[in-house]
């Protein structure tokens, strides 16, 4: 029975299959570059829009700590790397209940001296934010 159905099909049209399935082959070969280990330590700059102002914070990261400077104020967090591209930040001196919640960070892609990441409070994955950070040393 299968052979009867197949014999009624028109002859193969290679262009049709190439047109329909060719893009899938190109898309499946694309992989995002993630050289995360290069961004686990060093000095960094993060610029974001707060209201209608562009704000910049600077931070220094060792294998275990992250020290941030924002508008003249310092903040320190313990950093725990889950794998090469994901970490958990926990503030050492939280000022509020919100500050007590650890932040989960995942590096999505890297290019040159920048990386794109997403972050959210641990357990609140429905409210993920994205950003780009530049390594300055």
Q: Helix and strand layout, with pairings?
A:
Blueprint: H1 2-7, H2 14-29, E1 42-50, E2 53-61, E3 65-70, E4 73-83, E5 86-91, H3 97-100, E6 103-111, E7 114-121, E8 129-135
Antiparallel strand pairs: 1-2, 1-8, 2-3, 3-4, 4-5, 5-6, 6-7, 7-8
Overall shape: globular
Radius of gyration: 23 Å
Mean pLDDT: 84
Helix/strand order, N-terminal first: HHEEEEEHEEE
- Low-pLDDT segments: none
Task: Give an account of the 3D structure.
Helices cover 19% and strands 47% of the residues. By secondary structure, the chain is an alpha+beta fold. The protein has an eight-stranded antiparallel β-barrel. Strand 4 (73-83) and strand 5 (86-91) form a beta hairpin. The termini are far apart.
Which structural traits does this protein have?
alpha+beta, 137 residues
Question: Brief overview, please?
Answer:
This protein has 137 residues and is α+β, with helices and mostly antiparallel strands. 19% of the residues lie in helices and 47% in strands.
């Amino acid at each position: 029975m299968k052979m009867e159905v197949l014999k009624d099909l028109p002859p193969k049209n290679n262009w049709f299959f190439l047109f329909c399935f060719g893009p899938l082959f190109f898309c499946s070969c694309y992989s995002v570059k993630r050289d995360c280990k290069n961004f686990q330590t060093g000095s960094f700059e993060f610029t974001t829009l707060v209201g209608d102002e562009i704000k910049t914070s600077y931070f220094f990261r060792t294998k275990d700590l992250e020290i941030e400077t924002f508008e003249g104020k310092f903040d320190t967090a313990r950093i725990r790397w889950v794998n090469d591209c994901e970490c958990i930040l926990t503030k050492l001196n939280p000022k509020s209940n919100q500050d007590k919640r650890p932040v989960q960070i995942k590096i999505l892609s890297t290019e040159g001296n920048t990386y794109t990441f997403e972050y959210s409070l641990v357990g609140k994955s429905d409210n993920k934010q994205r950003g780009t950070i530049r390594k300055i040393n």
